[in-house]
Design goal:
Low-confidence stretches of chain B: none
Number of helices of chain B: 0
Structural class of chain A: mainly beta
Mean pLDDT of chain A: 91
Order of helices and strands of chain A: EEEEEEEEEEE
Strand content of chain B: over 45%
Largest sheet of chain A: 6 strands, mixed
Oligomer: heterodimer
Helix content of chain A: under 10%
Distance between the termini of chain B: 37 Å
Low-confidence stretches of chain A: none
Radius of gyration of chain B: 13 Å
Amino acid sequence: SQQGEEDPQALSIQEGENATMNCSYKTSINNLQWYRQNSGRGLVHLILIRSNEREKHSGRLRVTLDTSKKSSSLLITASRAADTASYFCATESGGGADGLTFGKGTHLIIQP
Amino acid sequence: KAGVTQTPRYLIKTRGQQVTLSCSPISGHRSVSWYQQTPGQGLQFLFEYFSETQRNKGNFPGRFSGRQFSNSRSEMNVSTLELGDSALYLCASSPGTGREPQHFGDGTRLSIL
């Protein structure tokens, strides 16, 4: 079953602009992770934020977590053509018996 | 350090056959998880192995099985293949029992005719 739901499903922006993707989930979590997937490839881990954290940065990435609203956002600043990919949020909850639970992803297209 | 290696990359089978997929985790990683990715259902957790023991299992029929060897390499097997089993099968490894973060291979694309 899908825990996270990303919004929007697809996003197309110009190179240099910022891209924001949102993720909502249903149950309490231990942590939330964001992954990137290029076409035909595996997932690449981007950033992990724990349930007791509110914001985290990594390079051009900024992730926020609002546990009261059960939502997270991923901001990519100064986008580049190489950022074109699908982005997924994944949650781990409880004892982890369900593995990581992924949303359906946001497909991001950066127009040169 | 080499990444997660999955073989084969592409596979074509017919209904009713069985298939075995292989995953070599990053050296030193003891946990291996498997996921199925389809356009309709997205990414779904199949199972996780740690130290040759299945630790967790997703909501898949018994036709889907797996195992892990003493060197942490893992295989998953799907018997009596159905058209709906066509998917990208992804393997991920991590150092311990936590899933933070997971390192994914590029997957095996399985097509059922």
